[in-house]
Amino acid sequence: MLDDLFSTMRQSIIDGAPDMASTLAQQAVASGIAPIDAINRGYVPGMHEVGEQFAKGQMFLPDMMASAEAMRAAMAVLDPELKKLGEERPMAGTVVLGTTKGDIHEIGKILVGTLLSAHGFRVHDLGVDVAGDKFAAKALELNADIVGVSALLTTTMRNQKGVIEALEKAGLRSQVKVMVGGAPVTRRWAEEIGADGYAKDAISAVELARELMQKKSPAVLAQT
Amino acid sequence: MRPKFELLDNSLIERILAEAFQLIDDPGVRVAPYVVDLLRGAGVSVTDGVAHVPEALARRLLDLVPREFYLFSRSGEPAIRYGGDNVHFDPGSSCLNILDSETQQARPAMAADLVRLIQVAEMLPQFQAQSTAMVCNDVPQEIGDWYRLLLVLWYSEKPVVTGAFSASSLHTLIELLAIESGGREALREHPRAIFDVCPSPPLNWSEFASQNLVDLARAGVPAEIVSMPLAGATAPVTLAGSVVQHAAECISGIVIHQLAQPGAPIVWGGAPAIFDMRSGKTPMGAIETAMLDVACAQVGKYLGLPTHAYMVAGDGRVIDAQVEMESGMSAVLGALAGINMISGAGMLDFLSCHSIEKLVIDAEAIASAQRLIEGIEPRGDSLAIGMFAQVGLHGDFLKLKETRALFRKEQHFPSAVIDRGLPDMSGEASGILQRVRQRVEELLSSYQRHPLHAEREKEMIAFAQREGRIAGLEGLPEVLRLEYAHEPELM
């Protein structure tokens, strides 16, 4: 019976059905099912399935966005329940994302955020036109593992360096890995400004984030 | 008959325009503070940075746009006619990387690469215009826009498709062009360059873009709107929906531009693309991207406006069958659509990389497309009967005087890049890369730089040294040798 419920939860994520995901989460809470079980045995396997199907080319970005939306709907119900119990969901890492100062493009960044969420990262998206000190403040507040900085224009790309400088100024650089991306960004540029990694697209950004987490704390990643 | 390719019937164009006019009114268009007073002065309501443009005003301003205008060569001759079904091609622009000629691997582009590309494009008649094709990585970024224009003006006599990197640097570029033209008025009368100006999708004229529109209009230098809806990401997923957004962005840009200077030249242009739902990339070589280009241009033509599109680019990372298939197909479609300026040749890897070798192969595709749009002409009193009367059923047409007189008009002869079965010097079949490398070397060795007017050349150098020094530029790469950089008296 319980397995059926978990299976339906999993399917609500694969189907990208936020209303269904939310309803099932409410049912689970009402039935006294441990929120962490609903997450780990119901919804997370759904996201894993979505990730696998995406990698195989059987699911597409709009499907992925819908699945992430369904995941958010479920977590909106379950997160407060976890807190009541004093529990926390194990995450692959915490990422602060944003588009650099002077740049209003965000489609690439949104994709990165969605895929990272789908792969178990806690993502905080600061939006567009974000100054370096805002990245640093949010990284400090969330005790972030990774800061991801996007830029679409050659003119705003150099502000990625400003984010690294802001992290240094805030004394956070040794704790936070920095990954950069965006159309004009290259591996060479990433090296030049002292970023920890460069990803050419959203899919490789997930791989990069995992690698950075491994470098940061191999033991933690091994547990997730 | 001039062959033509169209994707939209008039009733669909009317629907597209009706929705575009509705969009610019509601939800409206995000605009920068720089143009708020200009818009309000014309009765446009602007609330929280969003302009609500009434259709009647937009239509009045669209009527003011010149239906045709020229870009001029360095010598002041009209060289490019925007308007009607005239078709011209120029290399793609603003690329950060180049496919190294030797290794065929992408690497950051340098000033020397841009110069090679300019020289090759100068020798190819398929390119009626040059572009500021690359961002030179050995030049400080803050002066990158005017420096690449300097290189084009230095090495080319053709018109130029260019653009500024910021609101303020536009004035530096215009100053440089004015020096080359012999003053601001001369530039206004005989503009050599056109500036791409890009709205941010959806429906956002940023500070940089708004200001460029206004300042170009007032300087009398032609502007080319490059609207970039990405179908499914920053624009509706349907091709028709993205064409609506493109139209709304172009119309709202024209409203700003024509309010700044009624009658100033502007082009209905763009670089629309689909958004690949697997990779998140924007494939320029996809057939749907070419369909968007053709449809967007068709809407502009329906309004009687000069047109532009971004085509002849492929998405593979090396010169291969995919890249050339994509580039060749879109060259043909762009030409058949009668688009006035088709930018993009030479580019690959989702517009992130330029290749001189690809530019030369693309020139062959363009030449074929240009032959195609010449169409099939009846020549002589009869089509075939007259010739049959001479040779009868022997069929020996090769010896006819008509054959000799007409074959050059009927047939286009590609360069040795295209394998037409001619005997090779070595007697061995050579690959496309080998043939194109040889062609590049031939073009470069036949290139000869024609100096500018002596006084203007001197003035340009002084200008570049002054502006370059502010940005910490050592020397003038590819213009003057480093050792002369700080010795202006040698000029």
What would you note in describing this structure?
- By secondary structure, chain A is an alpha/beta fold.
- Chain A has two domains: about 1-85, Methionine synthase domain (Methyltransferase, Methionine Synthase (B12-binding Domains), Chain A, domain 1); about 95-225, Rossmann fold (3-Layer(aba) Sandwich), CATH 3.40.50.
- Chain A has helices at about 1-15, 20-30, 35-55, 60-85, 105-120, 130-140, 155, 160-170, 185-195, 200-215, 220-224, and strands at about 95-100, 120-125, 145-150, 175-180, 195-200.
- Chain A has a five-stranded parallel beta sheet, sandwiched between helices.
- In chain A, helix 2 packs parallel to helix 4 and helix 6 (about 130-140) packs across helix 8.
- The radius of gyration of chain A is 18 Å and the shape is globular.
- Chain B is an alpha/beta fold.
- Chain B folds into two domains: about 60-375, Trimethylamine methyltransferase-like (TIM Barrel, Alpha-Beta Barrel), CATH 3.20.20.480; about 455-490.
- Chain B has helices spanning about 10-25, 35-40, 55-60, 110-125, 145-155, 170-180, 185-190, 205-220, 240-260, 285-300, 320-335, 355-375, 385-390, 400-410, 430-445, 455-470, and strands at about 30, 45, 50, 70, 80, 90, 95-100, 105-110, 130, 160, 195, 205, 225, 230, 265, 275, 310, 340-345, 345-350, 355.
- In chain B, the strands form six sheets. In chain B, strands 9-10-11-13-15 form a five-stranded parallel beta sheet. In chain B, strands 2-3-1-12 form a four-stranded mixed beta sheet. A four-stranded mixed beta sheet of chain B has the order 8-7-20-19.
- Chain B is globular, with a radius of gyration of 24 Å.
- The N and C termini of chain B lie far apart (about 55 Å).
- The interface between A and B is medium-sized, with 19 and 23 residues.
Cα end-to-end separation of chain B: 55 Å
Number of helices of chain A: 11
Which structural class best describes the helix and strand composition of chain B?
alpha/beta
Please outline the major beta sheet of chain B. Answer: 5 strands, parallel
Unreliable stretches of chain B (pLDDT < 50, length at least 5) are: 482-491
What's the architecture of the largest domain in chain B in CATH terms? Alpha-Beta Barrel
* CATH domain topology of the largest domain in chain B: TIM Barrel
